[in-house]
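Protocol step 4 of 6: structure prediction from sequence.
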Amino acid sequence: MKEVIAIIRPNKITRTKEVLDALGFPSMTAKAVFGRGKQKAIIGEVNFAVKNPELAEEEGNMRYIPKRMISLVVPDEDASLVVESIMKVNNTGQIGDGKIFVCPVDDALRVRTKETGEEAIL
């Protein structure tokens, strides 16, 4: 099994979830996160007032940029399909399209039924 972790633009989360659901991967964890890449900011990406000093503007750039992070565990043979789908939906060709990480998962356990391995994630 593989865990696919994707950090994407907030305006792409709905479409990403729709595509993954259509492919048969409706189960995921999603949350709002803040971060930045090498560019430190994306001009015009954020259009709201920032009140938290940790996120405040610094020389015209934000210290951290709002993103969405999704995480899902899939069988090994489906990891490439999931990654390619996320890339296709989120690729704008601009700085800030995001990152995808693929990590090995040793085991999974469904608490309610005590199923393990792939049975726990499918």
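Step 5 (inspection) to follow. The beta strands are 2-8, 29-35, 57-58, 61-62, 65-74, 99-104.
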